[in-house]
Every structure is written in C-alpha cells, then in structure tokens.
Write a structure and sequence with these properties.
Length: 289
C-alpha cells in the first residue's frame, strides 16, 4: 500500500534532532540510513552509525562496496542514456547523496525524467528537499511507497505526470532486492513492472550474492548477512541464477551479471577486489530505440 507523504524538515541541519518525519524508527538501525552513513552522508542517527561500525568490523571493505555499488548505478544510468532512454523509475532510491539518478541524467541531457520510490520516511523527506532545491516538478518526483506494490507504484508514478508509459523507461532496483525474500512477493512485483514497461525499456539491478565469492570475502559477506538480522531489513543473498531470474525475458547486455566494479568500468578506474554485490542491465525486447 502507498503510505502517507512525510512532511519536509525545516531548513538547516538536515539531521535536526527536533525534526523527525512520522514513522521514523530510531529503535533499530535502518538500511537507508546505514547506507547513507557508508557513503559519507549525514542523514543518519547514532543507532545507524553504531551498526555501520559493526558492519565494517564484519566486512572491512563495506564502505568500498557501497561506493562501488553507487558507481555502478551511475555507469548503468549513463549506459541507458546512451541507448536513448530518457525516463527513470528508481525503486529503493535511498537517501540522496552525490550521483543521484536525476543528477547523472541531467548532466547527460536536459529532457530526462525521474521518479524516485522509497519506503523509508527519511529518504523520502530528503529526496523532496533535494528536488525542491534543484529539481523540476515537471521532470522529477519522489514517492513514499513499498516497491512490492507494483500496480499502485506504477499508477502513482504515472499520476505525477513525470513519466510517459508509452516510451521506454529505465527501471532500477539497485542494492534493494536483497532486503526482500521471495515470500514477500518481490518476484511477482518485479515481473509486473517488467510487463508494464514499454518495449525497449531497461532494467538495472544490483544484488548481494555468495556465488563466485571466495576466501575471506565469503566469510565476511556471511557475517554481514547475519548481522543484518539486527537491522530494520535482514538481508538475503541470492545465487547468480536466482538473481538472473529477476530479468525474466529481458536481454542482459554485456558483460552480463558481474561484480559491480567489473560492470563496464571507466577506463583507468581502480580495480575493486570485491565480488559479493553483482549487477547487470537488461533490455525489454521489441523496442524502437
Ligand atoms: C542500500 S539502499 C540503496 C540505495 C540506492 N538504490 C543505491 O543503490 O545507491 C536500499 C534502499 O532501499 C529502500 N527499501 C528497502 N525496502 C524497500 C521497499 N520494500 N520498498 C521501497 N524501498 C525499499 C531502503 O529504504 C533504502 O533506501
């Protein structure tokens, strides 16, 4: 179900302790806020930072992995722009930090459109502030919703007037599906989005895995998954085959579903020696672009 619109915090310190959007849970570390901490953001609380420090103990390169995932997102968005796609629906978009989808897209072309979706009130509130400051209401919107409600999210995204369903859209679920086990209905939801997208649309996915992960990193990712049981969203790592199923009949482009740092790296970029988050991009067959 779509949930209520969180209020926008007052200007100033974005972690003003007097401002808390309704429904913010400060009793448990929250995945959106932990990820914000890992990327060097400030929209996180002590409970999130303490958890983050434990995550780094479990997986010493956790921040590198978060950054590598975020960099993958930017490269995948640019790749889709290069295909001619100008619209983006970003599921589990997170608390805005540098390199948000609309920023990457706006650098590339001035006619891009983006709708963000997240179920964490802090992420949505900060997304709204950012877009009020630098967005264009005709081209950008934020929805407070659970991505598993595909039909409702789709209707709400179209109701913003930002997206044209007759033209290709790039759907993103980057570093979010591993917080949603199959029993939650996530597979059916992603299938529904795939069906709703116009031919030529793209799907960008990244996901935690143990497939192809060896040695210390394997032990570390297992420790991280175990630790996540204490957070608001326990993680599930899926095998490569299980991850590939999210693409359905979409054609996965080269180099396939690979560690995020190895997905079309920029020439000369430093190698990231981590394999426990993989990513890929698929295309819906039959498009004109
Ligand atoms: C690790 S962050 C990833 C943020 C961004 N996609 C990225 O990769 O840079 C995961 C985000 O997914 C959101 N999320 C988790 N479960 C969700 C759900 N069921 N519906 C919508 N958002 C969800 C969290 O609140 C969080 O902001």
């Amino acid at each position: 179900m779509l949930v209520s619109t969180p209020e926008v915090p007052p200007e100033g310190d974005i972690v003003d302790p007097d401002f808390l959007p309704d429904a913010v849970d400060l009793d448990r570390p929250n995945v959106a806020r932990i990820y914000d901490w890992a990327l060097g953001g400030t929209a996180n609380w002590a409970v999130d930072r303490q958890y983050g420090e434990q995550a780094v103990q479990a997986f010493p390169l956790a921040k590198t992995l978060a950054r590598s995932n975020r960099d993958f997102l930017g490269r995948a968005v640019r790749y889709c722009l290069g295909l001619g796609i100008r619209q983006f629906l970003d599921l589990g978009s997170g608390i805005p930090t540098a390199g948000n989808v609309h920023e990457v897209a706006d650098e590339y072309a001035d006619d891009t459109r983006c709708v963000y979706v997240d179920n964490e009130p802090v992420a949505v509130a900060h997304g709204r502030i950012l877009l009020e400051e630098e967005g264009d209401p005709g081209r950008h919107a934020v929805l407070h919703a659970d991505l598993r409600d595909a039909g409702e999210v789709w209707e709400a995204a179209l109701a913003t007037g930002v997206l044209n369903p007759d033209e290709p859209i790039c759907l993103l679920s980057v570093a979010v599906l591993h917080f949603l086990p199959d029993v939650t209905g996530v597979r059916e939801a992603i299938r529904d989005y795939r069906t709703l997208l116009a031919p030529g649309s793209a799907y960008v996915l990244s996901h935690a895995t143990e497939s192809g992960v060896e040695g210390e990193e394997l032990e570390q990712i297992r420790r991280l998954v175990k630790l996540s049981e204490r957070s608001s969203s326990p993680a599930v790592s899926r095998s490569l085959d299980e991850i590939a199923e999210f693409f359905g009949n979409f054609e996965v482009v080269e180099p396939g579903i690979v560690p995020v740092g190895k997905w079309r790296p920029e020439p000369g970029a430093a190698t990231v020696p981590l394999a426990s988050v993989v990513g890929g991009v698929g295309r819906k067959p039959g498009g004109r672009i």
